[in-house]
Backbone:
């Protein structure tokens, strides 16, 4: 199987080329990524627990799904593709904001991403892909905030970074 390629970018999101995903994470090279947040009619966020065998952040809770855009793929197309691959359902997505972050991990890898945050809505139960996802749950924003303050070690680094920005964004806009 050919290793997944990530799209390398500069701080202005100008495309610089492609690199194998693991190499980009080993070298901490800035690349495109996305994070999907799915809400239900009760304004709860669908969280996923990463699969136990993931090469970083195994069994940690995070946003509904996240990954990397493929060459030529729009942010929304990538988000919809990965939502089906990880969570087993389709939802319309809307891009909300983007930002750059860098998060090193204990295993020597570093996420250095130009991350696009997208929001969608869904009220059913996902058909999770057990290769990607260990578990899932709906959780209210305030409950997430309190739990993250109490037990931050249970959440992925990027989710903590995004959530701190996203939490304020939610307060300013109606979901």
Residues:
């Amino acid at each position: 199987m050919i290793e997944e390629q990530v799209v390398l970018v500069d701080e202005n999101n100008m495309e610089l080329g492609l690199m194998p995903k693991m190499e980009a994470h080993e070298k901490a090279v800035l690349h495109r990524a996305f994070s999907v947040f799915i809400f239900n009619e009760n304004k709860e966020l669908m969280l996923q627990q990463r699969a136990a065998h993931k090469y970083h952040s195994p069994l940690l809770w995070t946003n509904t799904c996240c990954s990397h855009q493929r060459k030529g793929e729009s942010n929304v197309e990538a988000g919809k593709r990965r939502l089906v691959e990880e969570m087993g359902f389709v939802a319309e997505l809307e891009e909300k904001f983007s930002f750059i972050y860098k998060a090193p991990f204990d295993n020597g890898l570093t996420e250095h991403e130009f991350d696009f945050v997208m929001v969608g809505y869904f009220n059913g139960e996902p058909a999770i892909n057990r290769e990607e996802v260990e578990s899932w749950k709906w959780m209210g924003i305030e409950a997430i905030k309190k739990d993250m303050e109490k037990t931050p070690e249970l959440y992925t680094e990027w989710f903590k970074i995004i959530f701190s920005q996203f939490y304020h964004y939610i307060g300013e806009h109606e979901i």
Remarks:
- The first helix runs from residue 21 to 27.
- The CA atoms of residues 119 and 152 lie 23 Å apart.
- The first strand starts at residue 5 and ends at 9.
